[in-house]
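FORM 12-B: Structure-to-Sequence Request
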C-alpha cells in the first residue's frame, strides 16, 4: 500500500509544480475585452424606409401555358419609399442634390435577372414607373429628387428567356442601390 501511495502522490506533487502560476500581467487583463466594429458615414439626400429595404414578392403560380402563349407572367408591383429627402448638403461647398439613380443587381440572365431552382426557361424583368427596363448592374435613367417623402414604383414580372421551359419552383435575390447627384 505504501508503494501505491508513493506511486500516485509523487506524480501529483510533480504536476502541481509544473502548472504555471497566474502571472501579474494575466491578473491585470482580467475584466478587459475587445469589441471590433465597422460602419460607414455616407452623405445621401434621402433615407430608405425600413419597410422598403428588404421585400419579399410572391410571384404566385404561373402555368407554363401562360409563359408559352404570352411570353410573360402577371406583373407584380412593388415600391421603394424614400424618406427625409433634402436638397441641400451639410457641406455648403458642394452643389445641392438634384437627381438620383437606382441600380438593380443580382444574378444575370442576359439583360434579365436570373432565377435559381427547378424551373427553367424563365427570368425576371423589372421596369420603373416610366417603363424603363432595368438591366442587372446598370443604372436606370436619372430622376429628380423631391423634398420629404418619395415613392419609387416598379413592376416585376416573370418572362421567357427563350430557352426550353420546364415547370418547377424558382427563387431569386435582387439588390438595389441609390446614387445621388
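FORM 12-B RESPONSE
SEQUENCE OUT:
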Amino acid at each position: 500500500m505504501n508503494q501505491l501511495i508513493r506511486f500516485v502522490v509523487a506524480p501529483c506533487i510533480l504536476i502541481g509544480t509544473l502548472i504555471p502560476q497566474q502571472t501579474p500581467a494575466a491578473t491585470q487583463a482580467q475584466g478587459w475585452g475587445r469589441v471590433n466594429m465597422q460602419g460607414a458615414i455616407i452623405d445621401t439626400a434621402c433615407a430608405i424606409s425600413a419597410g422598403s429595404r428588404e421585400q419579399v414578392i410572391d410571384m404566385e403560380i404561373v402555368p407554363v401555358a401562360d409563359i408559352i402563349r404570352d411570353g410573360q407572367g402577371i406583373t407584380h408591383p412593388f415600391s421603394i419609399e424614400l424618406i427625409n429627402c433634402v436638397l441641400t448638403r451639410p457641406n455648403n461647398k458642394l452643389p445641392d442634390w438634384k437627381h438620383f439613380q437606382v441600380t438593380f443587381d443580382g444574378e444575370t440572365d442576359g439583360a434579365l435577372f436570373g432565377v435559381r431552382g427547378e424551373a427553367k426557361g424563365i427570368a425576371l424583368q423589372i421596369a420603373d414607373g416610366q417603363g424603363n427596363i432595368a438591366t442587372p448592374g446598370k443604372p436606370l435613367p436619372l430622376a429628380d429628387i423631391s423634398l420629404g417623402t418619395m415613392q419609387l414604383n416598379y413592376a416585376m414580372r416573370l418572362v421567357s428567356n427563350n430557352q426550353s421551359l420546364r415547370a418547377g419552383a424558382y427563387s431569386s435575390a435582387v439588390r438595389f442601390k441609390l446614387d445621388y447627384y
